[in-house]
Design a protein that fits this description.
ligase; GMP synthase [glutamine-hydrolyzing]; EC 6.3.5.2; alpha/beta; single chain; ATP-binding
């Protein structure tokens, strides 16, 4: 997808390392305005080539007083001013703007973290829709503050402690917010962004998923020659399925998909997924049963990272074999590989400035078929690489991917290998976790709360406990249930079930799954834990 072809003004975010930067991009797209995020230290040419109408300088963990604090490129201010580009600095972005334009930033006498009241002092510019004296709750997260503003700037809002909360220079179209309007802890933040973009900047909203689909199909057709063939490894997840469906709509049966049963799938996963691929989406999919191959390699392995590496290596071997078989059948090598890379993967592969990590444009390995043999020489097609998860689901609806499939909870690449602690081949651990997981998920669906949960699953613990079942003493396994709510999987809270639900599920599991006599519930948020157990 070419950003220049989008029927919307572009809002460009310069990322200086804030944990909320992705949220800014998503909030703006929710307003039907196209938004992209690039490194805050990108060359000026990278910014100007995108021709943005608005540039937002994100927050970040740095202080402008540090010698290694990141900054926008030299010439950025002059370019923005001479081209009439609106600039909004958020938190660190405000302080950077103030300092670079000749103002003064100093360590605040009172640091401001968390919820804070601010009061509007001037109902103009970014607060043009407010009245003087209006108050709102916002989310602050800063230790430094603007002490002296550059010429032309004025304060338009202050915090309850008297610190600068918002500034602007309307003549030069420079604006700044010391708080984070993009987070839900700033209840009126979304309205502030909306007013700024539409009423202050005059941004044109034209970001529609239908246009994204049409443009991507055109890009694919322009990229893939009429006699070229394309391969895609389907995981059964939303991303790869939507990517494959889009490519199939563009080039038809020159797309060749493979779905691998690695012996680590959920209950009846293979049958359910293949039915969706063939009956609903009419995708050309080859199913490879490689369960014995995977499980034999995993026998005796207990280290979670080692399990992941073994699984990744076996996937590559199978994928390589599939590509060679296809070459013999077609009489030519496949030319392209489809991947369901999403925009967060692209952003996260380029660490923000000041993080101490090297910038890299390699997509994260767990979202690639990483380590493909060099002699395959496949070129990538990544039709979703500028989209977020919720946007992929929107695109999937337009492509008529069944709604229950689009709403499926995420499932890890290594499958049940990371939901069975220890050796996955030990005893009947896989059968137990499949049955427990099926009961848990079906109960959640029956209760009508599946869509309220980001991810839910069962975990097999290599621990036995004493119980009493049928008047008999038992020494059986312990399982745990995990369910979390989240917006993007980066942070998560455990889902609070009704006691009656938990009682019923526990009884079902103990009465129907042989080998289990104790059910526990994971009530840990992320952080400190991860969502998955391994």
């Amino acid at each position: 997808m070419d950003p220049k072809a989008v029927k919307s003004d572009l809002v460009l975010i310069l990322d200086f390392g804030s944990q909320y930067t992705h949220l800014i991009t998503r909030r703006i797209r929710a307003l039907s305005v196209f938004s992209l995020c690039i490194s805050g230290t990108s060359p000026l040419s990278s910014i100007t080539s995108l021709n943005p109408k608005v540039v937002i300088l994100s927050g970040g963990p740095h202080s402008v007083h540090s010698n290694d604090s990141p900054s926008f490129a030299d010439g950025f201010v002059d370019w923005a001013q001479s081209n009439g580009v609106f600039v909004l600095g958020i938190c660190y972005g405000l302080q950077l703007l103030v300092q670079r334009l000749g103002g003064e930033v100093r360590v605040g006498e009172k640091q401001e973290y968390g919820r804070m009241d601010i009061q509007v002092e001037k109902n103009c510019g970014i607060f043009g829709g407010n009245k003087v004296g209006d108050k709102q709750v916002v989310w602050m997260s800063h230790g430094d503050e603007a002490a002296r503003l550059p010429d032309g700037f004025e304060v338009v809002a202050r915090s309850q402690q008297g610190a600068v909360a918002a500034v602007e220079d309307r003549d030069r179209k420079f604006y700044g917010l010391q708080y984070h309007p993009e987070v839900t802890h700033s209840p009126e933040g979304m309205e502030t962004l909306r007013y700024f973009l539409f009423d202050v900047c005059g941004v044109n909203a034209g970001w529609k998923m239908e246009d994204v689909m049409d443009e991507e199909i055109q890009v694919i057709n322009n990229t893939v020659a009429p006699d070229d063939h394309v391969i895609c490894a389907l995981s059964g997840g939303v991303d790869s399925t939507v990517a494959a469906t889009l490519v199939h709509k563009a080039i038809g049966d020159r797309l060749h998909c493979v779905f691998v049963d690695n012996g680590l799938l959920r209950y009846k996963e293979r049958e359910r997924v293949m039915e969706t691929f063939e009956r609903d989406l009419h995708l050309p999919v080859t199913c490879v049963d490689a369960s014995e191959q995977f499980l034999s390699k995993l026998k005796g392995v207990v280290d979670p990272e080692m399990k992941r590496k073994i699984i990744g290596k076996e996937f590559i071997c199978i994928f390589d074999a599939f590509a060679h078989e296809l070459e013999q059948k077609l009489g030519k090598k496949p030319a392209f590989l489809v991947q369901g890379t999403l925009y967060p993967d692209v952003i996260e592969s380029c660490p923000p400035p000041g993080s101490g990590r090297t910038h890299s444009h390699t997509i994260k390995s767990h979202h690639n078929v990483g380590g493909l043999p060099k002699d395959m020489k496949l070129k990538l097609i990544e039709p979703l690489k500028l989209l977020f998860k919720d946007e992929v689901r929107q695109l999937g609806r337009i492509l008529k991917v069944p709604e229950p499939f689009l709403k499926r909870h995420p499932f890890p690449g290594p499958g049940l290998a990371v939901r069975v602690l220890g050796d996955v081949t030990e005893g009947n651990a896989l059968d137990i976790v499949r049955q427990v997981d099926e009961i848990f998920i079906q109960s959640i669906k029956d209760a009508g709360i599946y869509d309220s949960i980001w991810q839910a699953f069962a975990v097999f613990l290599p621990v036995k406990s004493v119980g009493v079942q049928g008047d008999q003493r038992t020494h059986s396994y312990v399982v745990t249930l995990r369910a979390v709510t989240s917006q993007d999987g980066m942070t998560a809270d455990w889902y609070c079930f009704e006691n009656s639900f938990l009682k019923e599920v526990s009884q079902k599991i103990c009465n129907n799954v042989r080998g289990v006599n104790r059910v526990t519930l994971d009530i840990t948020s992320k952080p400190p834990s991860t969502i998955e157990w391994e």
